[in-house]
Design goal:
This protein has 69 residues and is mainly alpha-helical. It has one domain. It has two helices and no strands. Helix 1 packs antiparallel against helix 2. The longest helix is centred in the first third of the chain and has 34 residues. It is elongated, with a radius of gyration of 16 Å.
Length: 69
Amino acid sequence: MDRDTRNSAIAALLILLLFGTAAFYLPTVMLALGSLSTVLAGIFGVVFVLAFFTVFWLRARSQRKNQDK
């Protein structure tokens, strides 16, 4: 495993652990928000899922940019 591959694997692991921990608490947060507003709870869930994919999209974009240099 070369240096770039190892760094990518470590970054992916950290991102997955962060989002995994957040996903563990997601139902609790959504229930708390749902008691205030169901729309707010739905928006929070959608933002969470979009943030997950956005992080990986930005990372891939950054890596592509670094390869072109």
